[in-house]
Amino acid sequence: MSSELRYTANTQQENLFARYTGTGHADITKHEWLVHQQRDTLASIAGHAPLLSFLAIADGEAIGRAKFEVTEKMLQPCGPPPLKDED
């Protein structure tokens, strides 16, 4: 693989990472990646009325309560972040 092609691919990848926050970056941790996935899923549920209605019916609660709980879960969807090792 030529160095020019590698440089172009890396530049395009960095451009995508900068443009779309959910795509992560080269140094993203597993916890950060999972948090992004969970928040995207919860935002989709809260933003689409049929999904929110389905969730509310499945849980047996009001749509407003289901939306509130979904938005509350977005704060820490995967729990607190793990402690970082300081080297």
Automatic annotation (TrEMBL):
Top-level taxon in the UniProt lineage: Eukaryota
InterPro entries to which the protein is assigned, alphabetical: SF3b5/RDS3-10 (IPR009846), Splicing_factor_3B_subunit_5 (IPR017089)
An example Gene Ontology biological process: mRNA splicing, via spliceosome
GO cellular component: precatalytic spliceosome; U2 snRNP
Family that this chain belongs to: Belongs to the SF3B5 family.
PANTHER family, per database record: SPLICING FACTOR 3B SUBUNIT 5
UniProt name for this protein: Splicing factor subunit
Organism name: Cylindrobasidium torrendii FP15055 ss-10
